Amino acid sequence: MAMAQPQADVQRLRNFINGQWVEADAAGTDPVYNPATGEVIAHVPLSGAADVDRAVRAAAAAFDRWRETPVFHRARVMFRFKQLLDEHADELAALITREHGKTLAEARAELERGVEVVEFAAGIPTLIMGKTLELVGTGVDAEMYRQPLGVCVGICPYNFPAMIPMWMFPLAIACGNTFVLKPSERTPLTATRLAELLAEAGVPEGVFNVVHGGRETVDALLAHEEVRAVSFVGSQPVAAYIYRTAAAYGKRVQALAGAKNHMIVLPDADLDYTTEAIVASSFGSAGQRCMAGSVLVAQQDVADKILELLVDRSSRMKIGPGDEPEVEMGPLIRDQHRERVKGYIQIGEEEGARLIADGRKTPVPERGFFLGPTIFDGVSPDMRIAREEIFGPVLSAVRVKDVDEGIALINRSAYGNGAVIFTRSGAAARAFRRHAKAGMLGINIGVPAPVAVFPFTGWRNSFYGDLHANGEDAINFYTDRKVVTTRWL
Question: Is residue 152 flagged as an active site residue?
Answer without folding.
Answer: no
